[in-house]
Amino acid sequence: MDRISIRGGHPLSGEIPIGGAKNATLPLMTAGMLTDERLTLSNVPRLADIDTMAALLSQHGIAVEPVDAEGRTLSIGGRITSTEAPYDIVRKMRASVLVLGPLLARTGEARVSLPGGCAIGTRPVDLHLKALEQMGAVIDLDGGYINARLAPGRTRLSGARIVFPFVSVGATENALMAASLAEGQTVLVNAAREPEIGDLAACLTAMGARISGIGTDKLEIAGVARLHAASHSVVPDRIETGTYACAAAITGGRVYLRGGRLEHLGAVVRILREAGVEITEDAHGLDVRRLNGLHGVDVMTEPYPGFPTDMQAQFMALMSVAEGAAMVTETIFENRFMHVPELARMGARVNVHGASAIVRGVPALSGAPVMATDLRASVSLVLAGLAARGETVINRVYHLDRGYEALERKLAACGARVERQAG
Ligand SMILES: CC(=O)N[C@H]1[C@@H](OP(=O)(O)OP(=O)(O)OC[C@H]2O[C@@H](n3ccc(=O)[nH]c3=O)[C@H](O)[C@@H]2O)O[C@H](CO)[C@@H](O)[C@@H]1O
Ligand SMILES: C=C(OP(=O)(O)O)C(=O)O
Known about the structure:
pyruvate; RNA3'P_cycl/enolpyr_Trfase_a/b
């Protein structure tokens, strides 16, 4: 297995290109199942998760073909030939459950492996299932699979008023896609407002869907009988942007994040500024630098526009070298502090009490061999390694490859001493 080796202590300086968002691309690819015509997606990041989704779509009979040499523009299309999403693919990536709404809407049936838990939490899909049941699906769970079909006598899903008891990004996406082809009006109340939802809604609109309330927590969808071909450019990755902003800050450097957008960062900008990071925007990206010391700032993860859980680990790495203390509270996932013991091995002082961690900043971290069990935890160790004295070796690089394209090349181009070692 590959490893990443970092020799820390070099302020980053230079430019980092921000790619399209993984968490926008995955649902956008499943939206390609909503029509027999072609959906062309550009600004697609080259990531392991995108390959996994392409493999899943091809299992359903949908071809995902690169249009350009680099594979950043994908053409998605074909007729659905199988309505089964097998365990072997779904277990690799939870976002696979996003085929459920499109399969049901298009064919009236779906058999999708239950995604199961993962390192960060149990992550049930009950809200996805309830929403689809309210739209006329009959669902049972059997042998680890979700078996879904239209209720007897129905030929299409039907519009419904769906009130989510709490915010779920994935359940909002599945319901939004299903509602686009349902008969009649659907209202999604307490819908997720993440920029990736807005991006999906914009793409569906280009495909002929009738959606209002985009960007708010109440989406109204007037179902249409069919959707058609469209082209869509994927929104820039706000989590990649925030991660590299933390990289600049933790090394005391300055980077230009080409393609980064302030409007999508939500609370991250305010919190980073409070911590002593300067962020300015121009027409093409963000200039991020740390002028003086870092200060401890408390954060609590929340649905967008609050501070994202996908930035919690990176921010904790930053706080581990800030002056003073910071309380980091995780409210979205019950087990998202796996980076804490690894950061502690590098000299960070962190105490976890239930859903909160108290981080007491230290003057310096020291390099160590580390590993993590999920994507953002892994990248938080990369950030810590960039700031630490000596060498840090990060194992289980495949987690990073799920969500960070060319991580070591992007960092090395800004002066980081980082390399991938084939294992
Ligand atoms: C591919 C993708 O976009 N992944 C993101 C998406 O995951 P994902 O869509 O899985 O996250 P959700 O917003 O659905 O999860 C939020 C919370 O709701 C719970 N829940 C969710 C659905 C459900 O049916 N029942 C239930 O209890 C989850 O366990 C979690 O505690 O949003 C998360 C929260 O911003 C991010 O961390 C993930 O990076
Ligand atoms: C948790 C994440 O992804 P997923 O929902 O695909 O596990 C993430 O992107 O940080």
